[in-house]
């Protein structure tokens, strides 16, 4: 019989961290005690510093989801605006050109390159082109 997934709040996660700091027990034992899997315990302990920092800042203790980081949204939107302007002037735009422009924007905004984000942006722009033509 499969068990329903259990979402833990920030308060629950901090309680697990504090319990594991007091008592030395395996991930499996802790998972059985708190009603979650051993991988969940491992993930909580990996994020221990961030979770304790949020808890110390009196963040929303009952929140069960974390907000996604949106660092690349500015780069995405600026690259897309450039893409639309280029297409409006009938300039042929290929993937390499989009990547280069995204790198320039990233260097200007962040002063460093983000190759993983650039690949994501290229895929995002391909989706936009398929959905709508500027």
From TrEMBL:
Could you name the Gene Ontology cellular component terms for this entry? nucleus
Q: Which domain of life is it from?
A: Eukaryota
GO molecular function ontology, one term from the record: DNA binding
According to the entry, DNA is bound by residues in 27-47
One Pfam match, by short name? HTH_Tnp_Tc5
Q: Say if the entry is tagged with keyword Transport.
A: no
What PROSITE patterns does this protein's entry cite? HTH_PSQ (PS50960)
**Compartment(s) of residence:** Nucleus
Taking every annotated instance into account, which residue ranges of this chain make up the domain HTH psq-type? 1-51
- Protein keywords: DNA-binding, Nucleus
Does the keyword DNA-binding belong to this entry? yes
InterPro entries given for it? CenT-Element_Derived, Homeodomain-like_sf, HTH_CenpB_DNA-bd_dom, HTH_Psq
Q: What protein am I looking at? A: HTH psq-type domain-containing protein
Species classification: Eukaryota, Metazoa, Ecdysozoa, Arthropoda, Hexapoda
């Amino acid at each position: 019989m499969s068990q329903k997934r259990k979402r833990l709040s920030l308060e629950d996660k901090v309680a697990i961290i504090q319990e594991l700091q007091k008592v030395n027990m395996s991930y499996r034992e802790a998972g059985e005690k708190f009603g979650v899997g051993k991988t969940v315990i491992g993930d909580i302990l990996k994020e221990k510093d961030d979770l304790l920092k949020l808890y110390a800042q009196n963040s929303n203790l009952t929140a069960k989801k974390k907000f996604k980081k949106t660092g690349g949204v500015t780069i995405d939107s600026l690259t897309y605006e450039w893409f639309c302007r280029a297409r409006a002037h009938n300039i042929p735009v290929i993937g390499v050109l989009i990547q280069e422009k995204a790198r320039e924007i990233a260097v200007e905004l962040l002063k460093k390159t983000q190759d993983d984000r650039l690949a994501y942006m290229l895929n995002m722009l391909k989706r936009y082109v398929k959905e709508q033509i500027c």
